[in-house]
Every structure is written in structure tokens, then in C-alpha cells.
Amino acid sequence: MGHSGGIWCLWDAGIWDVVVLDYSNQLVHFQVSCNNSDSWFLSACYGSPQRATRRSLWSNIHSLDDNTSLPWCLLGDFNAILHDHERQGGSSKGFSGACNEFQNCVSDSSLIDLAFIGWPFTWKIGNLVDRLDRGLSNLNWQLKFPEAYLKHLLLLKSDHSPICLKIAADPSPNRGRRPFRFLAAWLSHPNFNELVHQSWHVENSWTEGLLNFKNSLKKWNSNVFGDI
Fold first, then answer.
1. What is the pLDDT of residue 132?
2. 3-state helix, strand, coil in the chain (%, to 5)
3. Which of 40, 126, 162, 218 is deepest in the core (most CB within 10 A)?
């Protein structure tokens, strides 16, 4: 409705050189460079809420992967989840779980889920939360930008959290502290869902719940993954 359901792409022409290579209702594909640096590909995505219509997005991503040699990053609202852990609350009625077609698309295209910091969900309605917005990239892009990560920003007037791609780590006067980053590998661990339920069981506020979840997750990560 209104301005929703489309893709708006804006950039600072004084910083970025951008060439639009391909576009559809669900994807805009660019070649970008900054300050005469080597070019890379960026795709802005908006997956249709309709599963059948969304299949054309997966097909488009497959096609781009077959013709992509440069570093490549994809950002946006895919309107699908990769893992069952990426949904909390709500009713299970009508919920079909993680999107197998999305999983196959990511796997077949050898895409990597970008690490992020912030609340692990990007969409909220009532007591239902999902991670619908994310960043993906190929290995060449990860090698080009090894410190890149996403920030999940605060929900304001939208039911979606904005996501902000940070290509380089933020300079910090306190170099001894590492930022809290949410790793996609956690979602594949069989005990992760139980950790979320146990650590998020806080009655006071979302802020307290998030802090408790973050502290529990850091300890769990150290014990299970060796503090990666």
C-alpha cells in the first residue's frame, strides 16, 4: 500500500560510482565502486509476500550468480526465513517453517549470511517476530571486506528494523573491547532455540531482555564455539 512493497535506491554521487545493470519488481542489481576502487556488485532485494511470486526472485539470484565473477553482496527484505530459529512467538497455525526454496537458493549460489549486531529479528507484529531482512554475499565479497557486518537498527515507525551495512569496522577509542556480533552459525546449533527461550524470559522490558540475551549468548558462545 502507498510507498510500501517497492525498492528505492539512492546514493551520494560524489562518493559512489553506480551503474544499474538489471532490475525487476523484486531486485535491483548494481555495479558500484568508491573513490576509484575496484568495482563490486550490490543487489537490493524485496521478496514478494506471495511464495509463488517470490520464486522469480530466487530464479533471478540464481541467474545473476551464474554470470557473476566480481564480489557480490545482496541486501534487503527477502520476506522469508532461512532457519526455524528466526521466528519467535505468534501462532504455529499456517506456519510452514523455514523457506526451503530460499535455503536452496542461498546454498546453490554459494552465498554467505552476513554477521550482524543488534536484536536478532527485523520484523515485529504483536508478539510475533521474524528475521526477514538480511545481508548475503559471495566469498569474493567476504574476502574484499573481511570486517563487514550489518547493524539491526531500532524499530521506529515501521514494523521492520532498518539494516545498515558497515563495510569497515567502526574506529573505537577502546580497542580492547570487541563489538557484539550475531553469528549465523549460532542458528544452526540444536541448543540455540532453548537458549533464546531461557535468556529472553524477562518480564520487565525489551531492553532488559536484550541485555540478558546478549550476556547469556556471549557465555554460551565461549563454551560452545570457543569464543569466536
1. 94
2. 30, 25, 45
3. 40
